[in-house]
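Summary for the funding panel

The consortium committed to producing paired sequence-structure records for every protein in the target list. Below we show the first two records in order, beginning with the earlier of the two.
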Amino acid sequence: MRIGSIDLGERPVLLAPMEDVTDISFRLMCKRFGADMVYTEFVSSDALIRSVNKTLQKLDVSDEERPVAIQIYGKDVATMVEAARVCEEARPDILDINFGCPVKKVAGKGAGAGMLRNIPLMLEITREVVKAVRIPVTVKTRLGWDNDNRIIVELAERLQDCGIAALTIHGRTRAQMYTGEADWTLIGAVKENPRMRIPIIGNGDITSAESCERRFDEYGVDAVMIGRGSIGRPWIFREVKHYLRTGTPLPPEPFGWYLDILKKQVLQSVERLDERRGILHIRRHLAATPLFKGIPDFKPTRVAMLRAETVDELFDIMDRIPLNHESRPETHDS
């Protein structure tokens, strides 16, 4: 699969952009485990053109993580165009436009998935951003605003006509947020549309190597994007790539191998921020990881981990988790 001149190979697997998750250290870790392309946290165009320092930091990309995409969101043409030019100066390989974020503080103000209620403006922003930069521009969006407005098949054609180089579709409406199951049937319908020429990337509920392969096989997508399934589990890319290559599950590693990866994430987070903020940032990964699933009476330990305030305290709790229990990270569908 190619996006512009970027060759991502056959059946590529991508790391989704996620706010407060896909910082540079997590992107690099997922890249080393086999992610074929990674995306930054989404960047507010308004904050970017106002040179808000925290937002500018999100533009930091490393040659080690390439190909890498910067994702921006906003609700007016001029601001998005100016932000796109600023992003291009940071030298990403791809610029992605977020028309899919469902959270109230974004969609409720007309940006992200809020654009699904103003298609003319969505298309105008897309056209002008494509014209404003030299790098490939892609779009990530949803099936529609709600179940009565699942417009993605027609919308995909119109976005393609704006000049985008690829389209990522999350298999839910904005109204669904992240509830229920992702519906890939309309993603498949977009891919089957003979008028579509650009790559179609599917996203939603990829939590195992088997589910990833099924999406490729059943819906014919050009690539699959993994989001929440990677939080607390960056090794999922290693499992998926092995399964796609061999057709067999990757044998699990010893429990301590996975624990060491989580510890490395803690240390990277602390190094990037500081001890207090770094631990606060990494709690989401520790809370989401499937590594501790199945350990008897684990709740008090989980609570203690999420309340720890220092690295020493957190690692002391983690080191007391028995290494010889039968729990293993989920690598297959249940």
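The next record, for a separate protein in the list, is shown here:
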Amino acid sequence: MMEKDAKIYVAGHRGMVGSAIIRQLEKQGYHNIITRTHKEVNLCRQTEVEEFFAAERPDYVFLAAAKVGGIMANNEALADFMYDNMTLEMNVIHEAWKNGCKKLLFLGSSCIYPRMAPQPMPESCLLTSELEKTNEAYALAKISGLKYCEYLNRQYGTDYISVMPTNLYGPNDNYHPEHSHVLPALIRRFHEAKEAGLREVVCWGTGTPMREFLYVDDLADACVYLMNNYSGNETVNVGTGKELTIKDLTEVVARVIGFEGEVKWDSTKPDGTPRKLLDVRKLEGLGWKYKTELEEGIRLAYEDFLNNPMRAER
């Protein structure tokens, strides 16, 4: 168990996941939380990371920092996604080990699993067949991070764990029209269509892929729970165990936002992986289960979008 006064470093605290982890830590009474902005410590610069860890020597690390984006961003900036993510992960994990960090939690992504993985996807299917090409670079970087944690555990006896969340959404999300993930992109698209009085919204692909979504504050709760209750080399899936088609998702988003027009599909745009559902039996066996249902979570995310106009500028 993490001590309430332990020094805890949350890398990526301004992002959706990092900010949610801080909310959860504070809610549970942890008060010695360390953060640094990108300008203060560039995690891709090894020297800066070395100096930070040597000075602060955190007891625990939540590694939520990452270069992230939707299907277009991943497909257009393959080299950037691989380099930035692999570099910052290796820098942080390595310096945590060098400076005696008691425990580290590395956050990955469900895209690490094969494109045609068995459904729902168990943790054991990692590296059993080829990845989805549209986010292969990001996935390879994340796989490298979780494997480095595993290898440190095996070689040096560290207690570093990896968590693989499903598709996330919620407060502090990225709503950029081209670089965001599917759910925030839909929130922005339907909101703008409603505001403009449009009778039609065009969405990418065919609407047939199946996806699972988890409210980010539920993920944060799971991360703190696992930091306190799990040790092991194998990653842990975090999700709801429920899925729906992208078409069904658009209907939920439209209903929450109040858009009453028609949805049309641009099948010239990519669908991505046909299905991505995580097997969460391991996590449930450890005693944790999600709390926020999808429609309520989307309602909370939309409130955050409306209350923070600058979200749409990112």
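Regarding this second record: The radius of gyration is 19 Å. Residues 78-98 form the longest helix (21 residues).
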